[in-house]
Amino acid sequence: MYIVLVVLLLGVLPAGSVFAEHSVFHSAASIPFLMGKWFTFWAVGVRLGLAGLRQSFQPQFTARRIFNIQSDDMLPIVQELGLANIAMGTLGLVSLAVPAMILPAAMVGGLYYGLAGLLHVRRSEKNFYERFAMLSDLFIFGVLAFCVAAITAPR
Question: How far apart are the first and last CA of the chain?
């Protein structure tokens, strides 16, 4: 279920939202702006918000499944990570209603995904779930970095 949810939130739903707004609703906004809007909403807002809730209320999943840490000693740290994800997720969700927040949310979320992806890269002992987290983190970092660069580029 975790894999399906991540694929939906980091790929299918944002891409489908961009397509719908551009092709079905004929938005005048540029494709990079629409990508920034929808990838920020789904990947930063919904994905990090849901991850934060799970980490706060079920920290064992992240500790055991992703990082292969069996001890309960790390659970309070995972819960605090969850609170940070809820905070970033809230920013991403708000960006849909307040377009001025898209760029800050994309920057914060993208930077988080990129740095988390690099931490996964550095770890030599990775299980399947951590490898998947690493690849999905680096993918969404690349998408959000492209969006931030395109939105802020001089015209």
Answer: 42
